Amino acid sequence: MLNKEQIKEIIPQREPFLMIDEVEDYIPGEMTIAYKNVDESEWYFKGHFPGNPIMPGVLIAESLAQAGAIAILSMEENKGKNALFGGIDKMKFKKMVVPGDRLKLEVKIIKRKGPIGIGEGIATVNEKLAAKGEFTFAVV
Q1: pLDDT value for 104
Q2: DSSP result, the chain
Q3: What pLDDT sits at residue 75?
Protein backbone atom coordinates (compact mmCIF):
# COMPACT_ATOMS: atom_id res chain seq x y z
CA MET A 1 0.00 0.00 0.00
CA LEU A 2 1.22 3.51 -0.89
CA ASN A 3 0.30 6.60 1.15
CA LYS A 4 0.03 10.15 -0.22
CA GLU A 5 3.72 10.91 0.23
CA GLN A 6 4.72 7.76 -1.65
CA ILE A 7 2.17 8.57 -4.38
CA LYS A 8 3.81 12.01 -4.78
CA GLU A 9 7.12 10.27 -5.45
CA ILE A 10 5.54 8.71 -8.58
CA ILE A 11 3.09 11.27 -10.02
CA PRO A 12 3.57 15.07 -10.19
CA GLN A 13 0.06 16.17 -9.08
CA ARG A 14 -0.18 18.03 -5.77
CA GLU A 15 -2.95 19.33 -3.53
CA PRO A 16 -5.55 20.50 -4.21
CA PHE A 17 -5.43 18.53 -7.48
CA LEU A 18 -4.00 15.26 -6.16
CA MET A 19 -7.07 13.02 -6.48
CA ILE A 20 -5.71 9.80 -4.91
CA ASP A 21 -5.39 9.19 -1.17
CA GLU A 22 -3.87 5.71 -1.20
CA VAL A 23 -2.84 2.91 -3.52
CA GLU A 24 -3.80 -0.62 -2.52
CA ASP A 25 -1.87 -2.39 -5.26
CA TYR A 26 -0.08 -1.68 -8.54
CA ILE A 27 2.02 -3.42 -11.12
CA PRO A 28 4.26 -1.05 -13.11
CA GLY A 29 3.05 -0.83 -16.70
CA GLU A 30 -0.02 -2.97 -16.05
CA MET A 31 -2.54 -1.90 -13.38
CA THR A 32 -3.40 0.14 -10.28
CA ILE A 33 -6.02 -0.13 -7.55
CA ALA A 34 -6.33 3.15 -5.64
CA TYR A 35 -8.79 5.08 -3.47
CA LYS A 36 -10.09 8.62 -3.16
CA ASN A 37 -11.80 9.46 0.13
CA VAL A 38 -14.41 12.04 -0.85
CA ASP A 39 -14.52 14.57 1.99
CA GLU A 40 -17.12 17.30 2.48
CA SER A 41 -14.29 19.87 2.71
CA GLU A 42 -13.17 19.25 -0.92
CA TRP A 43 -12.66 22.58 -2.71
CA TYR A 44 -15.08 21.79 -5.56
CA PHE A 45 -18.11 21.19 -3.32
CA LYS A 46 -18.39 24.94 -2.63
CA GLY A 47 -19.80 25.39 -6.13
CA HIS A 48 -20.84 21.89 -7.28
CA PHE A 49 -23.51 22.15 -5.94
CA PRO A 50 -24.30 24.28 -2.84
CA GLY A 51 -26.73 22.30 -0.69
CA ASN A 52 -26.36 19.20 -2.89
CA PRO A 53 -22.63 18.37 -3.16
CA ILE A 54 -21.75 15.99 -6.01
CA MET A 55 -18.21 15.17 -7.16
CA PRO A 56 -17.88 16.45 -10.74
CA GLY A 57 -17.64 13.66 -13.32
CA VAL A 58 -14.56 15.26 -14.84
CA LEU A 59 -12.80 14.90 -11.47
CA ILE A 60 -13.80 11.24 -11.26
CA ALA A 61 -12.19 10.86 -14.70
CA GLU A 62 -9.11 12.73 -13.43
CA SER A 63 -8.93 10.41 -10.41
CA LEU A 64 -8.95 7.39 -12.72
CA ALA A 65 -6.30 8.99 -14.92
CA GLN A 66 -4.05 9.63 -11.91
CA ALA A 67 -4.47 5.99 -10.85
CA GLY A 68 -3.42 4.95 -14.36
CA ALA A 69 -0.47 7.33 -14.15
CA ILE A 70 0.74 5.39 -11.08
CA ALA A 71 1.03 2.27 -13.26
CA ILE A 72 2.76 4.08 -16.13
CA LEU A 73 5.04 6.47 -14.23
CA SER A 74 6.24 3.79 -11.79
CA MET A 75 7.98 2.05 -14.71
CA GLU A 76 11.73 2.60 -14.43
CA GLU A 77 12.00 4.25 -17.88
CA ASN A 78 9.19 6.72 -17.02
CA LYS A 79 10.36 7.91 -13.59
CA GLY A 80 10.31 11.70 -13.37
CA LYS A 81 8.08 12.04 -16.45
CA ASN A 82 4.43 13.04 -16.78
CA ALA A 83 1.44 11.30 -18.35
CA LEU A 84 -0.92 13.63 -20.23
CA PHE A 85 -4.43 13.05 -21.53
CA GLY A 86 -4.60 12.28 -25.24
CA GLY A 87 -8.29 11.49 -25.13
CA ILE A 88 -11.21 10.06 -23.20
CA ASP A 89 -13.45 7.48 -24.83
CA LYS A 90 -16.55 5.53 -23.81
CA MET A 91 -16.83 7.47 -20.53
CA LYS A 92 -20.05 6.74 -18.66
CA PHE A 93 -21.22 8.04 -15.29
CA LYS A 94 -23.63 5.71 -13.49
CA LYS A 95 -23.79 6.89 -9.87
CA MET A 96 -23.41 10.18 -8.05
CA VAL A 97 -20.33 10.41 -5.84
CA VAL A 98 -20.96 12.45 -2.69
CA PRO A 99 -19.15 13.45 0.51
CA GLY A 100 -18.39 10.43 2.67
CA ASP A 101 -17.96 8.07 -0.29
CA ARG A 102 -14.77 6.05 -0.73
CA LEU A 103 -14.12 5.94 -4.45
CA LYS A 104 -12.30 2.79 -5.59
CA LEU A 105 -10.27 3.39 -8.74
CA GLU A 106 -9.21 0.37 -10.82
CA VAL A 107 -7.18 0.96 -13.97
CA LYS A 108 -5.69 -1.57 -16.38
CA ILE A 109 -3.28 -0.54 -19.10
CA ILE A 110 -4.70 -2.30 -22.15
CA LYS A 111 -2.39 -0.99 -24.89
CA ARG A 112 1.03 0.64 -25.17
CA LYS A 113 3.14 1.65 -28.15
CA GLY A 114 6.11 3.83 -27.37
CA PRO A 115 5.04 6.80 -25.24
CA ILE A 116 1.34 6.40 -26.15
CA GLY A 117 -1.12 4.04 -24.50
CA ILE A 118 -4.67 3.33 -23.42
CA GLY A 119 -5.96 2.64 -19.93
CA GLU A 120 -9.33 1.21 -19.01
CA GLY A 121 -10.74 2.60 -15.76
CA ILE A 122 -13.59 1.64 -13.45
CA ALA A 123 -14.64 3.72 -10.44
CA THR A 124 -16.92 2.17 -7.82
CA VAL A 125 -18.44 3.10 -4.47
CA ASN A 126 -19.38 0.16 -2.23
CA GLU A 127 -18.99 -2.16 -5.24
CA LYS A 128 -21.53 -0.11 -7.25
CA LEU A 129 -20.36 1.29 -10.57
CA ALA A 130 -19.89 5.06 -10.47
CA ALA A 131 -18.01 5.57 -13.75
CA LYS A 132 -16.02 3.76 -16.41
CA GLY A 133 -14.14 4.68 -19.54
CA GLU A 134 -10.96 4.50 -21.55
CA PHE A 135 -8.12 7.03 -21.45
CA THR A 136 -5.50 7.62 -24.09
CA PHE A 137 -2.28 8.97 -22.59
CA ALA A 138 1.08 10.24 -23.72
CA VAL A 139 4.19 10.03 -21.55
CA VAL A 140 6.27 13.21 -21.83
Answers
A1: 99
A2: -B-HHHHHTT----TTS---SEEEEEETTTEEEEEEE--TT-GGGGTS-TTS----HHHHHHHHHHHHHHHHHTSGGGTT--EEEEEEEEEEE-S---TT-EEEEEEEEEEEETTEEEEEEEEEETTEEEEEEEEEEEE-
A3: 97
Write a three-state SS string for 24-54. Answer: EEEECCCEEEEEEECCCCCHHHHCCCCCCCC
What are the residue numbers of the active site?
Answer: 48
Overall number of domains in the chain: 1
CB 65 within 8 A of CB 122: no
Instruction: Tell me the residue length of the chain.
Output: 140
Tens-place pLDDT, residues 55-97: 999 999 999 999 999 999 999 999 999 999 999 999 999 999 9
Q: What is the CATH number of the domain that holds 34?
A: 3.10.129.10
33: domain range? 4-139
